[in-house]
């Protein structure tokens, strides 16, 4: 076993991760802390269907046309009567109306309901955690999601994390800004004032503690 080669590869990987995080942060304006308004504000939003979502299509009075399936990676969905129906980027209501319009050629006054069961969503509505999370992930945003909810979902932080040096990247009207987070205070000390409401598209970067 070439230990020297493994150490070199590990060092190179850490350097690459560090460079990527530096590049991400360099494009963002910085504010020292999240304002009280932003910390507590819960956005109102409509869930947008994305590739990988599992859906049930009900056609009232025509049960034989009802079906289930998964939105393909190309964002399209196939029903019993219509192939390659665009689904990604739409709400369930918008998709139901599109299916009704397509089915009108075959069924008199179709009434369609779309129920989304398995949620993946579009990237713009996901919340991402990178860096020293126990299980870094992209998670579909859900109404009333908080920073604490997100940290529970990713299993907390690794032993190498510097939680109070972590940052939140948030987009406002196409412009990214970064805010300091106090994850150590929240997770280790139970300081609930360090918790905050999240928004679709938020990115949490958990810094590494350098020894």
UniProtKB/TrEMBL annotation:
Molecular function in Gene Ontology: polysaccharide transmembrane transporter activity; porin activity
Residue intervals of the Polysaccharide export protein N-terminal domain: 44-116
Alphabetic keyword roster: Cell outer membrane, Ion transport, Lipoprotein, Membrane, Palmitate, Polysaccharide transport, Porin, Signal, Sugar transport, Transmembrane, Transmembrane beta strand, Transport
Protein name listed in UniProt: Sugar ABC transporter substrate-binding protein
Top-rank taxon: Bacteria
Domain SLBB residues, every copy: 125-206
Annotated Gene Ontology cellular component terms: cell outer membrane; pore complex
Short name of one Pfam family: SLBB_2
Membrane topology, from the record: Multi-pass membrane protein
InterPro entries found in the cross-reference section: PEP-CTERM_polysacc_export, Poly_export, Poly_export_N, SLBB_dom
GO biological process: monoatomic ion transport
Entry similarity comment: Belongs to the BexD/CtrA/VexA family.
Compartments in which it is found: Cell outer membrane
NCBIfam families named in the record: pepcterm_export
């Amino acid at each position: 076993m070439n230990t020297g080669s493994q150490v070199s590869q590990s060092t190179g990987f850490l350097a690459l991760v560090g460079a990527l995080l530096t590049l991400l942060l360099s494009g963002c304006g910085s504010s020292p802390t999240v304002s009280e308004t932003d910390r507590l504000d819960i956005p109102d939003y409509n869930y947008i269907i994305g590739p990988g979502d599992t859906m049930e299509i009900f056609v009232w009075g025509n049960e034989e046309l009802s079906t289930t399936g998964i939105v393909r990676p190309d964002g399209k969905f196939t029903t019993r009567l219509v192939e390659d129906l665009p689904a990604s980027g739409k709400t369930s209501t918008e998709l139901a109306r599109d299916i009704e319009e397509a089915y009108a050629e075959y069924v008199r006054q179709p009434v369609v309901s779309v129920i989304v069961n398995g949620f993946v969503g579009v990237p713009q509505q996901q919340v991402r955690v990178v860096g020293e999370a126990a299980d870094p992930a992209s998670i579909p945003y859900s109404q009333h999601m908080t920073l604490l909810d997100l940290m529970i979902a990713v299993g907390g932080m690794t032993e190498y994390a510097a939680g109070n040096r972590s940052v939140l990247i948030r987009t406002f009207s196409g412009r990214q800004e970064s805010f300091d987070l106090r994850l150590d205070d929240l997770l280790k000390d139970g300081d609930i004032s360090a918790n905050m409401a999240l928004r679709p598209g938020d990115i949490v970067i958990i810094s590494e503690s350098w020894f």
